Amino acid sequence: MDSAPIIYEQLAEYLNTQPISKETTIILQNFKFALCGGAPLHKQTGDFLRSKGLNVQNHYGMTETGILSTSNVSNNEVNNDQWYCIHPIKELLNYVTFEPFEDNMDMYQLVIHSNYPSLSKDAGNRTNGDYATKDLFIEISPGSNVWKFIGRTDDMLLMKHGEMTDPTPIKNEICNEEIIENCLVIGENYEHISVVIELNVNKALQYSPINMISKVYDAVIRANAYAPPHGIIAVPDMVYILPLNKKLPITPKGTIIRKKAMEIYRQEIEQLYDDKYSSHITVAHHHHSSASLKNKDIKKF
């Protein structure tokens, strides 16, 4: 089976609300592989499905090359928590390079050499014919050749003061909170990072408005551990929670259409950066009290 992340998200939501019978478990286990590609799958979703017997694995590729690599793990291996990574085979390494990205020695851009047999004609975007994918990875441990996709070079947020922030690990940690469906991390051409949160309606309604908002703020505070000092999100000042009837626009693969989202919620985003809300920003690193909740957030619910 090979599907986009949104299909696995829907399957996980269904299984999470239904008693899982022996027959269902057998069906899940009968899939040799359940490949996911096109966009990253939330790790908690993949972990949940794997715990139910579905052998979810990541695969990576693009139109210009076809599939390049998979995670290549099984449920019986000790490293099965690395299903969300890729492990390129030795032969592929003759045709690709994980190239340090700018001055960040922990982050690498994948470059496809011009002599890769499956590289599309005229796909090269460097003078030597190589194809810089703009896809960024980190190696799980030095020399392991196990790589985790973390975002794209054009996802990097170039902030007003010249610093760059990678929004992907921040977003991933925020979305690990079960009541959060999706989020848009913002900061391009701004002095501060902010976030627009879309809630999972069914799960959010299990909580009171105050508890609901508190869980969102706590998720953002946890995500700040993955941000550089200049990329920390001030809580609650730079957090906007969408009303329950509003959603972030996504592609069929489940990824946010950033430009469209910025246009739809332009007024809300500008409000976040209005001096009224951000002129005296203080960053919350630790647990907050209910008194710190924004009244305008509570009134939405």
From TrEMBL:
Phosphoprotein is among the record's keywords: yes
Organism expressing this protein natively: Circinella minor
Protein's name in the database: AMP-dependent synthetase/ligase domain-containing protein
Gene3D superfamilies: N-terminal domain of ligase-like
Pfam family, one: AMP-binding_C_3
UniProt xrefs under PANTHER family: ENZYME, PUTATIVE (JCVI)-RELATED, PHENYLACETATE-COENZYME A LIGASE
Domain AMP-dependent synthetase/ligase: 3-71
Keywords: Phosphopantetheine, Phosphoprotein
Domain of life from the UniProt record: Eukaryota
Coiled coil: none
InterPro entries for the chain: Adenylate-forming_Reductase (IPR051414), AMP-dep_synth/lig_dom (IPR000873), ANL_N_sf (IPR042099)
